[in-house]
Amino acid sequence: MTTTTEHPDSTSTGRTVLEASGLKKTYRMGSVPVQVLKDASIEVRDGEWLAILGASGSGKSTLLHLLGGLDLPDPDGGVVSHRGRTVSSLRGAGLNRYRNRDIGFVFQFYHLLPELSVLENAMLPCMVPPSRMRASLPLVSAAAGATIGALAGWFLGDVALPAADAATPTMLGVIAATWAVVGAALGVLCFQIIRVVVDRMRLKSDSSATETRRTLEDFGLLHRLKHRPSQLSGGERQRTAIARALGNEPRILLADEPTGNLDANTGREILDLLKKRHDSGLTIVMVTHDPKVAAYADRVVRIEDGRVLEDVPTEPGPRDHGQSS
Ligand SMILES: Nc1ncnc2c1ncn2[C@@H]1O[C@H](COP(=O)(O)OP(=O)(O)OP(=O)(O)O)[C@@H](O)[C@H]1O
Ligand SMILES: [Mg+2]
């Protein structure tokens, strides 16, 4: 899971791996359009750590979502390209591959699945997406359950009611329909139980589980593998989210305020983890509103009035002192 390429140098001018030009993004609040990105262009070079600074509401998350292919710019609102390929025109499997393999995304508010453990959350990107057939299984189970329920209802109504009050076809229909609903619910429930059991068995035997365990060990989470997100501290949740983002060994990590919800010490721990990965070759694009956090990066840009301004001088950071503050 660890990458092996040495990071060239903090002044790296590697080739461009991710680029956005002339991005426009407008949200609608009812009938009122709110243009967040007006003409945002940005270039990310191979092996660099780029920080995007900006005030709250300036459009940092919006820009990162567009870079990560999680949202689309306005029609005719610019282009995002990854290694020369236009991301904004990818669809279906191509887009999934980009989101799942080429980049890793750390969300501002973790977005861990509450019903899964630390290990299962971190393993999510390694799981094979369900085939079309498997995706339709809940519907098939519901239909099978409903049919069995309806037949059982009809049969029970027919034989169980005393002959004197023989059920009218309408009564039988109501009984059958009620049982069909119960049957459908039971069908879906059985399917879900079987799915969870099978997934857990697969997880235990999967070799990528070993890799994910190693990353989680690296991140100091080995003693928390079976915990649910609600049983974790903020820092542990963030480390789980970063481990998940690195699950498929992406070359680029997009991190949205990775320390935004953490105290200073925990924030430093997270930044040191990122620095270790960056030193091993990971390209990082990190959004933050905090100049001290931005100082970890090789290069800082600022987002203002819907545009990206280059070459913002920053206060001396850990890189300049050769240590993490
Ligand atoms: N889905 C949406 N619908 C309407 N407006 C939105 C939507 N998403 C974001 N916005 C608005 O767009 C603006 C930019 O949002 P964005 O989340 O990109 O800001 P940000 O720079 O990441 O802020 P923060 O530092 O607080 O996370 C905000 O004013 C926000 O209210
Ligand atoms: Mg944000």
Overall mean pLDDT stands at 83
Count of individual domains:
2
Please give the largest β-sheet.
6 strands, mixed
CATH class categorisation of the largest domain:
Alpha Beta
By secondary-structure content and strand pairing, the structural class works out as alpha/beta
Write the CATH architecture name of the largest domain: 3-Layer(aba) Sandwich
Q: Cofactors and ligands present?
A: adenosine-5'-triphosphate, magnesium ion
Task: Tell me, briefly, the overall form.
Answer: elongated
Radius of gyration: 26 Å
Query: What is the CATH T-level topology of the largest domain?
Result: Rossmann fold
Secondary-structure element string: EEEHEEHEHHHHHHEHEHEEH
Count, helices: 11
Strand proportion, as a percent range, falls in 15-25%
- Helix content, binned percent: 40-55%
What's the short story on this structure?
The chain has 325 residues and is α/β, with parallel strands linked by helices. The protein has helices spanning 60-67, 92-102, 118-123, 132-135, 137-160, 169-205, 207-218, 234-245, 264-279, 291-294, 318-321, and strands at 16-29, 32-45, 49-53, 79-82, 85-86, 103-106, 252-256, 283-288, 299-304, 307-309.
